[in-house]
Amino acid sequence: MDRASYQAAGCYSPPREAGGIDTRKDGTTERSSRTETGLVAALAAALLVWFAGLFVIGGFGFPVGPDAPVYLWWTRLAGAEGLSAVERPGIPALALVLQGTLHLPLVAVTAALESVFGIGVGLSAAALLRAGGRGRAAWILAGALAGTFAVHLAAGYLANLAFAALFLAAAAALAEGTDRAAVVATGLLAASGFAHPLFFLLGVLILVAGALLAWQADRGEVRRVSASALGGVVALGAGMLALRAGPGPPAVDTSKDAFLRRAGLTADLRSAYLDRFVHHWTRYVQWASVPLAVYGLLSTLGFVGRFLLAWGVAFVAGAILGIATGAFPADRFITFGYVVPILAGIGVVRLWSATRRRPVVAAALASGLVAAMLGGALLTWARQRPFIDAAEVARLTEAGRYAAATAPGTPLLFRVDSGGAATTFLATQAANVIRAALPPDRIRDAFVIVPPYAGAEPLSPNEARQRRALVDLYEHDARGALQGNGGRGLLFQLAPFDRPGFGATEGCPQLGCSATGGPLVEVAPGVRVGADHPAPEPEPVAPLRTSSPGGVVVATLGVLGLLSAVGYGWARAAGIDLPNAVALSPLAGAGASILAGVALERLGVPLTGWIGPTSVSALAGGGGYAVRLILQRRVHA
């Protein structure tokens, strides 16, 4: 839809700044820009309260969600061995840069990223529609709905969330319709790929499909989108190639799904995917918003319309394929469906316009629909909790003193048992927490041991099969590690992970007492170690520093502020006007920090301490302001 069409429809925003230069002389644009910048700031503040409020109300000092401990140990391992040691380097690189620059605990930074990327989703959605010419009501509502919907990935799935936010920001930059903005979109796409390489492929397919839809209508759009997608692929490919130099990721299970896959229990895995979808679908409340999304799509043209149409088709096709085949979790695919709340926001505003002659009906209908969509997100976010706590960290910090005293490469075996069927989940969850809190240089030496089931209640055939596979597979892993170390290791038993057997067992009989340090002795409350253990280190070794609800809020504000400062120059250099530059600056900053972090780390700059991370932040931010200054001088020359 061109400018005249939008104006005729009453949904075109006033002319905006181009490259920071006011295109109007009567002050109208300046006043509108200030007003809309204030609205963007208000949306960001509302989303900040939405996300950070959970940590305050719940009293949480740790990141929430089952996958959060994975990102903690990935980041600590990446700091010790380099980014090549993790599968998805984007979040570890960014977390290390933020931790070192802001001098904050990694726990607080990781929790802050859950909120900041959630806020970024909402701001990017608003910027996308605003760049496409939508009126204030539509882009504000779409930003609010998409931002609150981000709770489904903010609950620990940081790589997915970061990809979604950066991908949306790239689309918003492309919606500006200029070559300079397309260059920034290229960087955002590449950064999204470092966050989650597999979802990056899906994102590229969506962009290419949208570009094909524009073949007859706008060849310039085809060129810009294709060039950005290709540039993102090339940059990501070069980075991933460089990351092959160095130690590779540990071959461990980071989730129950990964265990089922490695154990060959594909039928159980597919059943788990389906069961998860059946039990979780009501949380998304997307089904109530799908008709609104279709209604909104009918009035959305131009790049934004083609992009959202391509995304919608991919969303529906992917969800159906996941349910039908069980090859991947359909619910995770649905949580990436931000196209629905974005279009639903347009649909609500369009419905309001259609019924505004009856104000009471219009208000009741619009508010009811918005409340229904927000309700599912609120219910999901209110149920979230950390899957790591201070007591576990304290026990593991004590165990780490003994682990650090053993020779490098000594297998560190941790007995894990819930006493029931939940052990299949607890085993992988405990392994992630254990690796997160151990000294970083001993993460690869950590192994979980699960004893045969000895509970009073019989297990179902499915549970029994999974328990046997868990016992056998993890015993096989431990035996292989012991053989590689001359048959010697050190066994630990921590109360948080083996309460039924704590103090009532002598260790792990199936591996042999002599191989695991002899009979277990209690060396601290809740901590038992093989009697043949070395003298512990006098002080904790590289402990995982815990945080507090207040610390998480401070970290969230610090991360949001730093990333905004880093990214603002790039957004303005791209010719993006003030309101959208403010909206996109946190994610432009995140993208620039990821790219600069990966590049400098590969060149030998450590991302630990404060010198390397601060250098990355300065380079990532300073580059944007330098480019903007050069471009401004060319304009005035």
Helices and strands in order:
Blueprint lengths: L2 H7 L18 H31 L9 H14 L8 H13 L3 H26 L4 H14 L1 H4 L3 H17 L4 H17 L1 H17 L5 H24 L13 H7 L3 H19 L1 H12 L4 H24 L4 H5 L4 H17 L3 H24 L7 H16 L6 E4 L7 H15 L8 E4 L11 H23 L6 E5 L25 E5 L2 E4 L18 H25 L4 H25 L8 H26 L1
Parallel strand pairs: 1-2, 1-3
Antiparallel strand pairs: 3-5, 4-5
Helix pairs in contact: 2-5, 2-6, 2-22, 2-23, 3-4, 3-5, 3-20, 4-5, 4-23, 4-24, 5-6, 5-8, 5-22, 5-23, 6-17, 8-9, 8-10, 8-23, 9-10, 9-11, 9-23, 10-11, 10-15, 14-17, 17-18, 22-23, 22-24, 23-24
Q: How would you describe this protein?
A:
- The protein is mostly helical.
- Helix content is 66%, strand content 3%.
- The chain contains 24 helices and five strands.
- It has helices spanning 3-9, 28-58, 68-81, 90-102, 106-131, 136-149, 151-154, 158-174, 179-195, 197-213, 219-242, 256-262, 266-284, 286-297, 302-325, 330-334, 339-355, 359-382, 390-405, 423-437, 461-483, 549-573, 578-602, 611-636, and strands at 412-415, 446-449, 490-494, 520-524, 527-530.
- The chain has a five-stranded mixed β-sheet.
- Helix 9 runs antiparallel to helix 10 (197-213) and helix 9 runs parallel beside helix 11 (219-242).
- The two termini are 34 Å apart.
- The model is unreliable at 1-25 (pLDDT under 50).
